[in-house]
């Protein structure tokens, strides 16, 4: 999707925040002279509470489901199809398996019963190797050099090893089997040893839970936080539908409390009994915990569970695993930014997610509404932070065959870059969401409208590219659709935002609005058609996904898209020929401006300038080197 050229420069952020405006489209409904604070916006809905015989679920007003429910055009979809989906949910909940989970019924077993489930050492060796070779989360949670020493001691004397550590081993082996199932080649090798890999997943998952229970994990003994964290990671990867993440989300609250009980929120340097090595390991684990907390609150539009004002744990230092060892006296100086270590990435990720957390708190507050000046200030903070960290993770050009061992560093960088970019675009949508619709008629909010729509279009563009690349013959086909489980919420959110925009375009109440000039009208029509084509592509993706039959949320999205796209076609939307995305998915820097007008006049109320020099076209760098390398 190329960007249209912008002839005249947009206003600066300072201009926008001071209230100065440029000439551009307006309407009779525009409130002349109205300041940002004088124009009252409709507050967010309270969300909704879904009651059924089997469950009660609250969904916040900023969640994608609430956004769809508030679209008048979809009233029929939610009035009929949604009732059927509720019945399906009740039936599926009643039919769910009764496997063990960390909070449910369990059969008490002894240590020997657990140890009897261990595979032969050579098979365990291969699984541990797979886990540390194909992932990066575990290397932050478990220091690999130290783990290998503990691992050899365990096999020398299994009966003297803490039972929680045994659970950690089972968790790593379970994750390794899950990772292998995402690759057809690795899955075939696994099936030579085990004809039913899912049986191994169930067995190792069960033993992990039993180890935690036998070790009284709620007392926060050594290895408990790390083992529970690995357990929740395996639970997340093992879920296929969006709603099934509710279980891990609830158990996440328990983990946060246990981490507080163990003092992970206080820096180890405060306590003489904690060595510098132990303190640094705790910082790494805490960085993962904070990142997950911010990420989950963002995805589910719920408050975060960690109050960072009560925490003083330092950021982990930019060091490699080989820089740390048990009996070290002091930490070495951090490496250069070009080292691209795991701690360096997680620090950058958390800096971005922390601002997203502030955005979430500001825009979802039920006590007060933020001023538009606050919105613009936070937008500047978000963008400045993103630009300060993203250049370090800018992928360099790599050959197409970047999955080879010799080029592993490059795919990791590409994955890191992609996740940071997705987080940035998602955060911008959340920040400007309430001003997207008002920006249609009130020129002071044009900037927010542009930013929000462009960010959503960019996310869906990459959904389409990833869909193509994960199909048979695609560059990422060995990972499959299920690989994208942690991006589904981003795709759903962007879909809902653009559904609301398309519904506004085809709404009879919008027909009274007229553009200020022919050029502006053409730009508006082109944007409308871009939204239509993006949603058409999303419809194909959701319809073809494996979750279209198993996930009630995806069923609802498919029904909503079908209804809106049909109405839009009847209204003559989508006549502009669009060029399909052509490059695989490494997200561009946030400089695309396909909403600008190819004429001598700029759009009204533009705030921070958006350069048209870099279109929102993905670059090919062979991203996604194994599902385990996804950073959350």
Question: Could you characterize the architecture of this molecule?
Answer:
One of its GO terms (biological process) is DNA-templated transcription. Keywords: DNA-binding, Metal-binding, Nucleus, Transcription, Transcription regulation, Zinc. It holds the Pfam family Fungal_trans. Residues 251-322 form the Xylanolytic transcriptional activator regulatory domain. The protein has 632 residues and is mainly α. The chain has helices spanning 13-18, 64-69, 75-95, 111-115, 121-133, 137-141, 144-156, 163-180, 184-193, 197-214, 224-237, 246-261, 276-300, 342-364, 372-390, 409-436, 446-469, 488-506, 518-544, 547-550, 552-570, and strands spanning 48-51, 56-59. It has a two-stranded antiparallel sheet with strand order 1-2. Mean pLDDT is 76; it is low at 1-34, 398-408, 516-520 and 581-632.
Can you write the helix and strand succession as a string? HEEHHHHHHHHHHHHHHHHHHHH
How many β strands by DSSP? Answer: 2
| Tally of individual helices | 21
- Overall shape: it is globular
Specify the structural class.
Answer: mainly alpha
Distance between the termini: 29 Å
What ranges have pLDDT less than 50 throughout 5 or more consecutive residues?
A: 1-34, 398-408, 516-520, 581-632
Task: Report the major sheet.
Answer: 2 strands, antiparallel
Strand residue percentage: under 5%
Give average pLDDT, whole number: 76
State Rg: 25 Å
| Fraction in helix | 40-55%
- Across the major sheet, the strand order is 1-2
């Amino acid at each position: 999707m190329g960007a249209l050229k912008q002839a005249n420069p947009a206003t600066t952020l300072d201009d926008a925040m001071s209230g100065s405006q440029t000439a551009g489209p307006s309407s009779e409904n525009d409130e002349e002279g109205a300041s940002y604070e004088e124009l009252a916006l409709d507050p967010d809905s309270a969300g909704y509470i879904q009651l059924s015989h089997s469950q009660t679920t609250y969904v916040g007003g900023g969640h994608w489901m609430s956004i769809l429910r508030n679209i008048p055009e979809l009233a029929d979809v939610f009035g009929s199809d949604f009732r059927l989906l509720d019945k399906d949910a009740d039936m599926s909940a009643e039919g769910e398996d009764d496997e063990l989970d960390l909070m449910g019924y369990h059969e008490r077993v002894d240590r020997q019963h657990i140890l009897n489930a261990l595979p032969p050492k050579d098979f365990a060796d291969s699984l541990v190797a797979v886990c540390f070779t194909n992932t990066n989360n575990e290397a932050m949670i478990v220091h690999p050099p130290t783990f290998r020493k503990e691992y050899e001691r365990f096999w020398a004397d299994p009966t003297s090893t803490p039972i929680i550590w045994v659970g950690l081993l089972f968790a790593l082996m379970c994750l390794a089997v899950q990772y292998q199932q995402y690759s057809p080649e690795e899955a075939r090798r696994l099936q030579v040893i085990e004809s039913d890999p899912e049986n191994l997943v169930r067995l190792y998952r069960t033993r992990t839970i039993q180890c935690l229970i036998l070790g009284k994990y709620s007392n926060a003994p050594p290895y408990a936080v790390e083992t529970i964290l690995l357990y929740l990671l395996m639970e997340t990867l093992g879920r296929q539908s969006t709603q099934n993440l509710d279980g891990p989300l609830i158990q996440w609250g328990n983990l946060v409390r246990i981490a507080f009980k163990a003092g992970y929120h206080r820096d180890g340097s405060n306590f003489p009994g904690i060595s510098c090595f132990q303190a640094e390991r705790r910082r790494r684990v805490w960085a993962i915990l904070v990142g997950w907390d911010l990420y989950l609150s963002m995805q589910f539009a719920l408050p975060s569970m960690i109050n960072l004002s009560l925490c003083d744990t330092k950021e982990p230092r930019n060091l490699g695993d080989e820089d740390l060892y048990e009996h070290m006296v002091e930490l070495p100086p951090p490496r250069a930014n070009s080292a691209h270590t795991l701690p360096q990435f997680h620090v950058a990720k958390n800096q971005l997610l922390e601002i997203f957390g502030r955005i979430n708190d500001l825009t979802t507050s039920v006590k007060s509404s933020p001023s538009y000046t606050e919105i613009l200030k936070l937008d500047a903070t978000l963008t400045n932070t993103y630009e300060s960290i993203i250049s370090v993770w800018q992928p360099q050009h790599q050959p197409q065959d970047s999955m080879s061992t010799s080029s592993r560093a490059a795919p990791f960088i590409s994955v890191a870059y992609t996740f940071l970019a997705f987080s940035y675009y998602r955060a911008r949508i959340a920040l400007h969401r309430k001003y997207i619709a008002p920006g249609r008629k009130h020129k002071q909010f044009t900037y927010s409208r542009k930013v929000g729509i462009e960010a959503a279009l960019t996310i869906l563009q990459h959904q389409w590219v990833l869909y193509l690349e994960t199909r048979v013959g695609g560059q990422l086909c060995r990972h499959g659709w299920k690989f994208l489980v942690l991006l589904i919420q981003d795709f759903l959110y962007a879909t809902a935002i653009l559904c609301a925009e398309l519904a506004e375009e085809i709404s009879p109440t919008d027909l009274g609005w007229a553009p200020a000039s022919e050029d502006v009208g053409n730009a508006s029509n082109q944007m409308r058609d871009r939204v239509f084509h993006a949603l058409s592509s999303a419809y194909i993706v959701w319809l073809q996904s494996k979750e279209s039959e198993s996930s009630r949320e995806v069923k609802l999205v498919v029904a909503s898209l079908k209804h809106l796209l049909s109405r839009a076609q009847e209204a003559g939307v989508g006549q502009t020929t669009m060029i399909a995305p052509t490059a695989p998915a490494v997200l561009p820097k946030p400089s695309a401006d396909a909403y600008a007008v190819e004429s001598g006049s700029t759009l009204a109320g533009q705030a921070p300038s958006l350069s048209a020099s870099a279109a929102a076209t993905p670059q090919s760098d062979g991203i996604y080197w194994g599902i385990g390398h996804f950073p959350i």
